[in-house]
Queue: 2 jobs
Job 1
Amino acid sequence: MQLLPVILSGGTGTRLWPVSRESMPKPFMKLAGGKSLLQLTSERAWALPNVSHTAVVTNMAYSYKTAEELMDETGAKQTSLLLEPVGRNTAPAVTLAALWAQAKFGSDVVLVVLAADHLIDKPAEFEDAVADAAALAQREGRLVLFGIEPSSPETGYGYIEWGSPIARSRAHEVARFVEKPTAEKASEYLRAGNFVWNSGMFCFTAAAILAALEEHAPDLLRVAQRVAHRSALHAEGQVLFDAQSFGELPDISIDYAVMEKASNVAVIPCAFGWSDIGSWKAVAETRETDEAGNSTEGDTILVNSRRTYLRSEDRLVAAVGVEDLVVIDTPDAVLVAHKDSSQQVKDIVAKLKRDGHITAKEHLTVHRPWGKYTVLHDAPQFKVKRIEVSPGKKLSLQLHQKRSEHWVVVRGTAHVTVGERVVDLAPNESIYVPMQVKHRIENATDQPLTMVEVQCGDYLGEDDIVRFSDDFGRA
């Protein structure tokens, strides 16, 4: 049996703002051990038996960061990136992954669909559940769900009611799916004993899920087949789904499209220490606490406080005489919330988006395929950035309509094009880039390159850019 883990890495994680933002969402968030949720999920996938390849379905905008984390940091060389031009929920993602997997590995390949932003504390129990699900999927063509045995009357999850047991398996028939319940209903489900949380993780063969789509969502499948047919190899191990036909896919979950309609769905009740890290309260619960129930990350001080979580990225954060708070400090935004209200952080992000506030989307440090930049100062008519270009990388050949730029090299060697002039700049050397003149920075060495950029102009937005050529397909 060949097992193919498929990791769905989408969503912005708005309830984990200000760390999770649109340009660097929740799956890339580092936890206490220094690894991101995506990296931990990938490691968990590779630990499963009979795995020689994995796939990640993600947005094209996150391709470089995903590749950097999985290929460079975890060594998962046999990972394919299936790149969506825009988000379209789980049904299109699963369908396209199944079509790709069938073409590459055959109809009998067993897909284990995982979410990039989950934590699992008991990997051995998880592996046992996957083995049972994979055997059932292969033997009976079942669509198998992983249900989480509830530990509390949680109202933030959907529930699955399970019925009759299935022979030679820990799985049960699915009696029904239930939407996120009221507190009263959730308590009732907990007492009943045959309800589990819907984890959003699945196991099935490529043939079984495509047959279910043919029966219950044929229009979605037809569009997905066109997308797959028109898609192209973007880079080694990366498939870019055709943008034009992709836009015709419906925004629908795999639960609504298939699972709630199919008759061959099974669920395995699981207790492997699962968390979807859906709020700062959930993040706090992953940390060890002191005798007062406090937990911290970064440079922090707590005095006379209880059950409080502090997280600081680069400066001292102190709290005195507080209880049941989460305090999240980043270089450009601070969140203070009661633990029981941490689900409402998404409302802050919604307001920031309505107001056009940049912190809804970007951090001060912004990652790009060629490296990253950090905004050091932003004022009317001028902006100062630190630009870091990775070895062997170069920015696009571009120009700006409304601003000029001054570049000063502080580390490494910059191969610079400004108009017709091409020059190498060493540390403490600089060059001026006039408005409306084509220019480019390249790091042709094997050492890091760091520059300071000063922008001057009436408009300094990131959308004032015209690209003429680009190594990353953005021209």
Job 2
Amino acid sequence: MARNEQLIRQHKLLQILERSRFGRTLNEMRGDLVDELGLTSLHTRSVRRDLEALQTAGIDVDSHETGRGKVWKLGPNFRGTQRITASVTELLALSLGRDLLYPLSGTPFWIGIESFWSKIRESMPEAVWQHYEKLRQILYVRGTPAKTYRKQEGVIKTINRAIQQHRVVQAEYQRPGEPGPRQRKIEPYGVVVHQSSLYIVAAACEINDGPERIRQFKLDRFRKAEALDEYFKLPVDFHLHQYLGESIGVFSGGKPKNFRIRISGYAATWVQEDPWHPEQEVEVHQDGSITLKVRAAHDLEILPRVLALGPEAELLAPKSSRQAIIKTIAELSKKYRD
């Protein structure tokens, strides 16, 4: 049993009570905890002790008899301290962020977004809400992929729980081009949102050491996931933000390389309008062209961007990456020759 299991249960209990306007019975809360935390067993006595611990901590949780039995709910003092206020501008910003995160539909993160948005809606005076809705008509979000993670809802719940509890995950993982899914055991460290897709940063259990041990697994490729009764220790020198810090996209873990790309004056404006990396360097030439200097951990973060610019861009360095793009261009030329 994980030492922080009781703390996790209590935190989840608060979430369950917050979204339940009419309260929950002990049996109902036990069922919620088993379902949402993926527990194999849980007694109602443990649920009662967790509720009493919350009360001892000063959280306003009370109980009363109803037609369906004794129910527990958050008291008025708790709700009063959690009152939410927002200006029209803040509502606009939140609603735009909600639209941008729609591809996360089906994940616990989206459930949290919707729950928070509902609380805001209930807290807003009608006049403020009407003013917000009027202004929202002139703002529209486009460009988000037409995808959701509803099919992977169970998978992401399992992995998210395993991250919190430091549990090893047994997964069926289907890589592109392979005839069927492979069995993988991973130690999940964190979740990354990249271009509206979710990636799991995890250590591959079959690799004992070295930079290749930590990898990025795309959530779309998980077919099944099971949290095992095996626990791991997060490396003391691992920090997710630092690990991905020098990466343009989601690729990381290897030694970053210095890329130099010559871009014509015609395409230079596009690159300057939409930078590839916050720390990129741009050298401007007299003819309007530029040389872009950027660090990245993987060729796949750079080569597709260079190819997308066609003849307007030339990869100058490193040599190995230049050879890779020459090979790609030769294969494309052969394919389109006829």
